[in-house]
Task: structure prediction
Amino acid sequence: MKRKALITGIMGQDGAYLAKFLLSKKYKVYGSYRRNSNYENNRLRKLGIENKIELIDLEINEFASVNYVINKIKPDEIYNLAAMSFVASSFEQPLYTIHTNFFALLNILEVMKNSKKKISLYQASTSEMFGNETQKSIDENTNFDPASPYGVSKVGSHYLVKLYRKAYNLHCCSGILFNHESPLRGEEFVTKKIVKQLSEILNNKRKIMYLGNIYAKRDWGFAPDYVEAMWKMLQLKKKDDFVIGTGICYTIKDFVNLTCKYLKLNTKWVGKGINEKCINLKNNKTIIKISKKFYRPLDVNHLKSNPAKAKKQLNWKANTNLKTLIKKMCDDQNLFISLK
Ligand code: GDP
Result:
């Protein structure tokens, strides 16, 4: 009998890569997505797996639907990846963010609590839970200090998982994933935005890009490496929570500079603060400006992981460094532009 996995949020970056990974492990994969008018399976199509997954439209905020779907499928493993995951939007839609990210998980946990079948649950926790906690390198014992409605919703969910694990002995765990990117990353996230817009500038399809806080630091890994960590966590007999990251962080400006280097754009930064800009030395034109529009009411300035526990107990480590990640994202973007 094939093992069965249910992935909520199958249409997202992680959902798509995880589905591909689980198919390679011979799972039967069910994927749920939010019912809305623009059904977007482009990521699954890009990975060539859109016909290999059983898709279910599921409103995860509705207990009755969650109950029905889980009891019908009877999955061995559930990966709860469905979320409102863009930090900046969570300031505009706090209620929606907390509903989707917190109450949906509660629905799943309640169904698991009442189920006779042993189901394992992976919950997508995040480095955004730490906010501006000042510890230089973050591990599983670092205090939470969320700096956005998104971060708050995920801290709540993180504690729900711990609570249900302790109180009801449920097989559930959380992966505290630091930022993870790929060619499938949504365009609202800064890495994809930089790669896409700089590639457009290089190909004369755009004149200028606007960015917000370029001095924030992030620990960026490659999403396919990270979905493997999710699976590894669920294979442990005794469920536990793990920090997953590369252990190295860079500023947004570093990411821009490395991308320019890979694209062979010869550039120079001038000015300070809101007037800082980046110039293309080939024609002396300004290609990047800072815009207040992309500043957040509160930002997280520094995120760096200490993934030692995952290395020791899961035998997992990030295999892709930032340069390689940028190469993969740029090559995919430029292939896309040349096909257009
Ligand atoms: P996050 O870490 O989940 O919020 O991932 P993002 O990729 O959305 O943002 C990473 C960092 O880049 C944050 O500190 C943002 O404030 C910063 N940033 C600077 N300019 C931009 C921008 O134009 N778009 C986005 N999304 N982030 C930006």
Observations:
- Residues 87-88, 128, 179, 188-191, 193, 211-214, 216, 218, 252, 294, 296, 299-300 surround guanosine-5'-diphosphate (CB under 6 Å).
- DSSP finds eleven helices and 15 strands in the chain.
